[in-house]
Design a protein that fits this description.
Elements (H helix, E strand, L loop, with lengths): L1 H11 L3 H17 L3 H18 L2 H17 L3 H18 L2 H17 L3 H18 L2 H18 L2 H43 L1
Helix pairs in contact: 1-2, 2-3, 3-4, 4-5, 4-6, 5-6, 6-7, 6-8, 7-8, 8-9
Length: about 200
């Protein structure tokens, strides 16, 4: 609801950058809720604006997001096309934060198509980039992909090693989320106390 309010304000002030960013964020929320029809509608509008603005970084991100949507809908060919389009742009402009998730997505498609070798290769590409840029969530996702692909290839030592990395990263991400939530609660408590004092 807040992003919809933000979108209305950005439309009033005619900010194409703001409108496109809000549209993409609203689409992400719908995607997380499993509302693929609404998510796709918002991604499509966002992509159109990003193209008008010639914002290559956001175009690549949006293409990857739509690739995720089609992956979840098990429409693998569409998903593959979008991930590859995103990769082409992100490699050209050097956006590794966008490049790595596309490799993970392509790897997951390969696993679903029983191509463990290719999934393994994509997993390692993503894992190398994720470590280089220090992205915990991407390290987590790529390690899980490598573990699954390795297991299917009969590389059990490697599967175990990357499963340990995946589990360790999962625990770190859960702890980070807990710390964030505790900080938010502490802030809310302090804010209420200060408000009571003022009143």
């Amino acid at each position: 609801s807040y992003y919809h309010k933000s979108l209305e304000i950005e439309k009033e002030v005619e900010s194409k950058e703001g409108i496109s960013t809000s549209l993409n964020t609203i689409a992400n929320i719908y995607l997380n809720q499993g509302n693929y029809t609404k998510a796709l509608a918002y991604y499509t509008k966002a992509l159109e604006l990003f193209r008008e603005l010639k914002n290559d970084s956001e175009i690549a991100t949006c293409l990857s997001n739509i690739g995720n949507l089609y992956l979840l809908r098990e429409e693998y060919e569409k998903s593959k096309t979008l991930y590859n389009q995103s990769l082409e742009i992100s490699i050209e402009i050097g956006e590794k934060f966008i490049e790595a998730p596309s490799y993970v997505g392509l790897g997951l498609i390969c696993l679903n198509e029983d191509n463990a070798q290719k999934a393994y290769e994509f997993g390692h590409k993503a894992y190398a980039i994720a470590n280089e840029i220090g992205a915990l969530k991407l390290i987590n996702e790529s390690a899980e992909l490598i573990a699954k692909a390795s297991e299917q290839l009969g590389l059990y030592k490697e599967a175990y090693r990357f499963h340990v990395v995946f589990k360790s990263m999962s625990d770190s991400l859960i702890n980070k989320d807990r710390i964030r939530r505790i900080s938010e609660l502490e802030y809310q408590y302090k804010y209420k106390k200060e408000k009571q004092t003022i009143l």
